[in-house]
Every structure is written in C-alpha cells, then in structure tokens.
Amino acid sequence: MYQGAHLSAALAMVTVLAGCSTDRSNARATGTAELAAAAAESVTVKATDFAFEAPEKIAAGAVTIVMENHGKELHQVQLVRLEEGKTVEDFAAAMKSHGPSPSWVKWVGGPNAAVPGQQSNATSVLEPGQYAYLCLIPSPDGKLHVTKGMVRPFEVTAESSATAAELPAADVTIKLVDYDFKPSQPLAPGRHTIMVENAGPQPHELVVIRLAPGKKVEDFAKWAESLKGPPPAQPVGGVVVLEKGGRGTFTVDLAPGDYAYICFVPDTKDGKYHFHHGMMKNFKVG
Ligand SMILES: [Cu+2]
Asked: Positive or negative CA dihedral for 110, 149, 75, 66?
C-alpha cells in the first residue's frame, strides 16, 4: 500500500519534471531508478498450533512470505495454486484418497520449517489465481497439520506496479534433482540469498537443518519418522515443494557449524520419502 502510493507520487513527479524542465533525459532516469527499486511484496503469515493468520488477497508478482512460528511444533507455509476452479475442500478430499497429487494442484514453494519462536522466509513469483497456504508437517500423533486446520485459501489478484515481477538476485543457487542437492558453491558463514531451482523431474523441497554436535542428517531422517525424543537437528528454513522447473529464493543467516539438506517429498514411483532415495546431504559452514 505504502509502496504503491510512493511509486505513484514518484511517477507524478517525473511527469511534472518532464513537462516543465528542458532536461528530459534526467527526468526519465529518475523514473527508471524508481521502477527498478520495486521490491518483492512482503507478507507475514503467523503459524500457530494449528492455524494460519494470513492475508486473503495478495497482488501478483514476487511475493516474500515471512512465516512466524507462534506454535509449539514445527511449521511451514507450502503455497499451492488450485487450478480448474478447485477449492481447498477439493484439496482436502483429494488428500484423503492417498493417491498421487492431482494435476490441478501446482506446488509453488513457500518458507520451509522453522522451530517455535523463529521465522523463515521464501520468495515466489505468483500469477493471479486461487491458492492455499498449507502445512504438511506431521504431529507426533502422525497426523499432518493440514488435517488439523492448517489450510487456508487466498487469492492472487492482478499485479501491482509497486511489486517486482522477478525473484530477487541470489548469491548461491541450489539445484534440486532426483535425488540430490547441487549448490553452485559452498556456503560461507553469514547472510545469504539462496536461489532454489527444481531441475526435476519430480517435485522436490529443500529443508536446511543445523545439526546438533556429533549428529548427521541420517539421525534427523530417523527422528523425523517417529518424532520421538529430542531432535538431533533444528530446521532453519528452505523452500517447500516446487514443481519441476519451479524456482524460489530464501534468505538465511548461517553461523559456522554442521548443517544438512533433506527432502521429504514422497516419491512418485514408490511413495517413499526422497531421503530414502538418497536426497539428503551433510555439509559444513565455515
Ligand atoms: Cu525430493
């Protein structure tokens, strides 16, 4: 809202300058600089046990979802686009059938898991249409949070000139493939904007975890299947499920230490989580 008003004022100023000044090129340069400054729209989603507090309408373009975890369990915000006039009720019904993901559901990323009291973020380019926020993380009782109320529809409306059309620039790219993570370079300590690209062919996600001393991603994978006992790692963000060819960015601050990538997407052939096919990788920062 504020950015829109700011941009309109800036454009009005350019028009005035162009009208009364002989230095038209200077006026145009000012206008270009204002347009280039258009940033991703930032939207806060509050996750609790078990609901989302989130906007019902977002303007199309690059949208950064900042998830605040106000609950006692891990949460994420999976963004899905519902095509062919389908609703969240249709989505809930399709989930009960335990079949493959319907063709009218498009997985478009979103901020991956953060622990209670923490935040995570991710930026996706959203086209106008009907969408939903979902949390597909299970509780210790084995039920997914989406079945406990963590599903909420929203609409992406026509784009606003104040919102960037493209993802922000990243300093590292991580490619997701069947079944591996391929970073463009090692991650140094500090703040990064990371581009996540699904090079497919299957849908994938990126979960980044910080490992407890002496633990490996294999320990976390084992823990995640029972959710019993203290977790051997803490999720620090990432990007939730992307379709083949899908992209999203996220920012993260990495202190030196032991980390890992892992993917929990069920395989389209055997239904096993992708980490069972080897899609998990330990790495060091610093
Ligand atoms: Cu995967």
From this structure: positive
Question: How many angstroms does the Cα of residue 276 sit away from the middle of ligand 1?
Answer: 10
Q: How far is the CA of 264 from the centre of ligand 1 (A)?
A: 6
31 token code pair: 């206008």
Residues 213-232 pLDDT 10s? 999 999 999 999 888 889 99
Asked if residue 156 and residue 31 are part of one domain, the reply reads: no
Q: Which is it for the CA torsion 235, 237, 242, 247, positive or negative?
A: negative
CA distance 73 to 71: 6
- Strands (DSSP E) contained in 51-201 are 51-53, 57-59, 61-69, 78-82, 105-107, 119-126, 129-134, 151-157, 172-177, 180-183, 190-200
Tell me: do 72 and 133 sit in the same domain.
yes
Do 24 and 55 belong to one domain?
Answer: no
For residues 176 and 246, give the distance between their C-alpha atoms in angstroms, rounded to a whole number: 10
Q: 238: domain CATH number?
A: 2.60.40.420
The per-residue pLDDT for 29 is: 41
pTM over 0.70: yes
Per DSSP, the three-state class of 90 is helix
Range of the domain at 255: 41-285
29 lies in the same domain as 47:
no
Distance in Å, CA 221 to ligand 1 centroid: 13
Find all residues with CB under 8 Å of 158, minimum gap 6, and list them.
59, 60, 128
Do 118 and 183 lie in a common domain? yes
Whether residues 20 and 64 share a domain: the answer is no
Number of structural domains the chain divides into: 2
Calculate how far, in angstroms, residue 280's C-alpha sits from the geometric centre of ligand 1: 9
Residue 180 to residue 200: CA distance in whole angstroms: 10
